Amino acid sequence: MFLSSSGQIDDKEFDIPQVDTPPTLESILSELEDEEEPFVLEDTCMVNTENIDAHSCDTSSLASSDSGDPAFLRRKKRTVDLNATAHGSVLRHTLLKGISAQIVSAAVILLCVRVFQTVSGVIAVGTSHGLALVFDTNQALRLCLGTRTTGCEFGAVSALSINHDCSRLLCGFAKGQITMWDLANGKLLRTITDAHPPGTAILHVKFTDDPTLAVCNDSGGSVYELAFRRVMGMRSCDSRCLFSGSKGEVCCIDPLRAPPDLRDHPITQYSLLAMASLTKILVIGLKPSLKVWMTFPYSKSDPSTVPQLSWQFVPVQKASNPVLAFCKGDTVHFLLVKKEESGTIHVIKQRQLQLSCDIISLSWINSRTLVLVDSHEKLQVVDRPSQEVLETLDLEQVQLVYSSRHFKSLATGGNVSQALALVGEKACYQSVSAYGGQIIYLGTKSAHIMALRNWRERIDCFLKQEHFVEALSLAWSVHEGSAKAVVGLFGDPLKRKAVVSDKMLEILFQFAEHTLKKCPEQGKIQVMEQHFQEVLPVLVDYCLLLQRSDLLFSQLYTRLLENTVAKSVFLESLESYIVADRLGHLPPHIMRDLLDHYHSSGMMDSLERCVVHLDVTSLDIHQVVKVCWENQLYDAMIYVFNRGMNDYITPMEVSSHLFTLYEDVVMGNKLLVYISCCLAGRAYPLGDIPEDLVVQVKNQVFEFLIRLHSAESSEDEQLFPFIHTLLHFDTREFLNVLAMTFEDFKNDKQALEYQQRIVDILLQVMVDNPDFTPSQVGGLFTFLARQLAKPDNTLFVNRKLFDQVLEFLCCPDDDSRHAERQQVLLELLQVGGVVQFNEERLLTLAEKAEFFQICEFLYEKKHLYDRIIDCYLNDPLRKGGVFSYIHNLLSMPGYSPEEKLRVRHKALLCFTELVTFDPCRSADLLLFHFAEDVQQIISGLHDDQLLFHFLSSLLEPREALPPEALLPVEQQLHELQLDLLCRFAPQHLLIFLQTSQHYTLEHAIQLTEKYGCSEASAYLLEIKGDVQGAFGVLLEVIIYLLECLQSNLWSVTSSMLWFPLLDTMMASQKQVKELRATHTSEVLKELTMKLLNCMSSFISLPAIIQQILQDPVYGKGKLAEIQGLILGMLDTFTYEQTLLETTTSLLNHDLHWSLAHLRAAVTKGLHPRQDVCNICLQQYKRRQDSAEEIIVFSCGHLYHLQCLQQKDGADGFVPQHKHQWRCYKCSSSHGGRGGASSEAKRGRSTSLAQTCVTSMHHDSAAVAHGRKVFVETTLDPQQEQSWDQIRSLYRGPSRVIDYTPYPALRLPVVFIYITKRVLLVYSF
């Protein structure tokens, strides 16, 4: 069915209900919202004049109804971006309500909308029933092309294309046909059925710039050229295959189409066509003949990713050239096509764009901006030059239509490859159309247009959200031309800046009003201050950027005066801009308010910083000077005097007077800096003195310094008071100021006269003046020496004073500034300014003063190079330079053999000292120059530790050594180093053995065994071939470590330590047995037996046997395999058991013999020599009825206990224990007094036979009942020693040795002897 020219629609076909008044399309649309505008495709002008309008590729169509599948729509909801980026809202998103309403209606009638195409003035939509709906820019339906019959025959519309003048429409169908329509009257012009092989769907059909030429792409992956002809009124179409799908399926094509103003571009004559296959990109030229220009393979990517292509003319320098953007995956590549004047065409690869997600749609919205859609349906606006993402939107609510049905060619039987069908799952080529700076996205139920907002809209979006700071930032970037994706600015740059400036001023006033309204009316002052501190600096900043300080200090400041807090914050915010020299002039009323506020707030430092940066013409000099004097703002005062009155002397006079009165250190330092600046032509505290005043100011300062007296001088004032004052304040710094000033005096005759005059005054003031310390006078001489050392020196100094300078510099008793004095004298010698020196005297003075650099200078002049070595060695600051000096002198030409020989001899004499200082550098020096003297040097090193470090450095591997660096006795040195390593660094011994080959194996083994370096011994034995010996050494180390740890470990832990070692040994035996190595197997058995013997001391025999039987090596074998191990363990056990029993028997016999002799000694009866007490001389039994205790000693003397207690108490000795007694008579006969001091001497007076004898009545009950009587006794030292000897004889579980031999032993009575009337109790 064809539409008439009136554009009427058949109501029955579309099932539209009858109404009284047929409505227009607009009548069914709702009102547009604030953000929505009528759909108008218009050219957009960029801020940058090189940008041109963007034009989309012609063919962009919708996809199949697969995107409406419920499983596809059940995606996770994503939150919408709030566009809070610095670029603001870049895209304007508008719903095309008129077209969306028609789509919904078509979806009900025709199941689903299929294809979408837009060109300026026309929008075309294809349906699944083969119809094409054409809308105008007001979204009114103009034409409905095709009929249901056509739809049944051709299938769904799968591709659309409109030519550049909107006169023709190409429709591609799912079953492979192509039709051409006249958009002026809706007439069908051509039906093409043989353009490509049947059975494949049309995926793309696109016009080129030539209206008689188009290209198409089918589901077989082939590309064809369609040439339209009209001969004798008959329309025809010739088809030519450009690319066969058998060579690689093409799934996307895009011909280069130039905008109207670039139709004459030299590239357009070639009719370029870009094709994207599954593996590469191809660019071909259709004219004048078919030619492949370029192929570009993709990088590795997911097979399901969709290739994308898009052409755009981009300004490059002064010309616009086409750029092809393409991608497959997450990387966008750019190719620039350029034709040189010579006719050569270049395809240049440009910087690629890397993203984080796979891309399913790529479109240019203008020459600098790309709009991408990723696989998560996130839209990203990207600025190509900076590769910055400007904005991100979520398109999930759009519900994009995908082309999977056509890529699978379901309408023709689905005869496509799996690879192409997989790509079709994410293909949305026909759902996106871009033209004239706008992009339209087609969803299952709606159509959406995305267009770049103009710059005002973007700013207004921020203002609606009350984001004034962001709005100002965006506006300023537009003003400076740094903003991205700017639309809507016209004219030259100055006019554009003026328009943006007006907008920014408008925002500033709105911001100020908004801030005053939002200010909290009540609350703390700090809260109000914080409120204004966030706003007012922004206002000041942008007013200054726009150079509109007049508005800042008039309208804005007047508005802020209503709030006192706002006024204060505003004035304080000016400081940073004044200090940064962005605000140099203030109106008088602002300056007055600023002074008053800072003065009243006590912010004097801030006030001073502001004053010295402001233009002096904006200052009230009287007011400022008054405030500066009152608050001691010296910098500000100097600034006002200098700049306001060109007076550079008054500040010095006043400052000098104040310093003399108050001795203010700050004032003194400022005065020195001020004088230095004036003499150097710089202004204080910043800037420069005007060029016409520089010489005048210098002369004025010199005249001020050399004044004889001050203006208000007194009678006792010294001559030259200003120089005198500055010298007393800081002599060194004042002289430094003069030194820096004298540097600039060259050809200025008057300045040189001032220089000589000042030097004469300094000498007159300081020499022989007791007011100055020797250190200050020395500073003057150092200053003079530096001046005299200059090559262009013009100063004259008296010879005597110069000798005085020399004597001072070389004074050995003055340690202050030693290095500086030496440097000064060295400079004098180097420039040769003083030739009257007596070199011998100078050398003597330098040696006394320890000026080693001076000595070096003089020695070098006399060619005494060997003496210079001593200068280096004695100078602690330059001692490390002796190595370089010796090396250079011996290596470089220009020195005689005799001189080198003396240096070599001197170096050998000092080599021990060199090694002590730096062994490493000494070793380098030896290798290069003293290799043949190595034995002599080694013999001179008596410290083994030092020798070890030296040899370590000497024998370290080096590269690029000269042939003479080979050591003659290298093997001896390595063996010596081996011995030292064993002693001082055994941890490095193994590395040395592995890297060095200069030692004998036997000698090395002897050394490692001597010093117990087991690991090194094992390594050497292995090298020797004695693997068993090496293994045995390591096994002994392991066993030793286990035995050392065993005493602190429990039995469970013991098995955890020993059993893994046992398992390893038994596993090794099994492996060796399989290899049939008999000798090795026997050695392993011996080592295993050794291990078992050591284990048996800590682990029980059953546990060891159980472990052996459980081992997988022996558990499944025969008992004969482990018979040797078990029998060996049993033999060892039998031997050890026999040894233990024999030892126990011997110990028991010895113990019994010792105890028997001891018992015989202590049970021997005592016979008193007499029956009377040796103290009271009475019978020991004085009364028959009394129970009186007596004590009998082994010497035979007898005492009453009471008498003995009284006697010892009288002698001043109180026994600490009631049974500790001594024989009184024996002790007295040796001249002692029974006191405690003589206890050690009389230790023999009490013996093991000492007995306590009591009356028979005292313990007769115990005796009568036959009970053992226990007596507590304390052993003397001899007895304790005997007791320890007995205990040490046997360590087994004996019942006899269960008592601790410490002071209060309780021992059983071993013998009771009863006489007629006396009970004798013996104990031990």
TrEMBL record:
UniProt KW keywords: Metal-binding, Zinc, Zinc-finger
Looking up SUPFAM superfamilies in the UniProt record yields: RING/U-box, WD40 repeat-like
Asked whether the keyword Nuclease is assigned, the reply is no
TM stretches of this protein? none
Q: Which residues form the RING-type domain?
A: 1173-1227
Task: Name one matching Pfam family.
Answer: zf_RING_Vps8
Task: Please give the biological process terms from Gene Ontology that the record holds.
Answer: endosomal vesicle fusion; protein targeting to vacuole
Q: Which Gene3D superfamilies does the UniProt record give?
A: YVTN repeat-like/Quinoprotein amine dehydrogenase, Zinc/RING finger domain, C3HC4 (zinc finger)
Q: Name one GO molecular function term.
A: zinc ion binding
- State whether keyword Metal-binding applies: yes
| A Gene Ontology cellular-component term | early endosome
Q: Return the similarity comment.
A: Belongs to the VPS8 family.
Q: What is this protein called?
A: RING-type domain-containing protein
Classification from the root reads: Eukaryota, Metazoa, Chordata, Craniata, Vertebrata
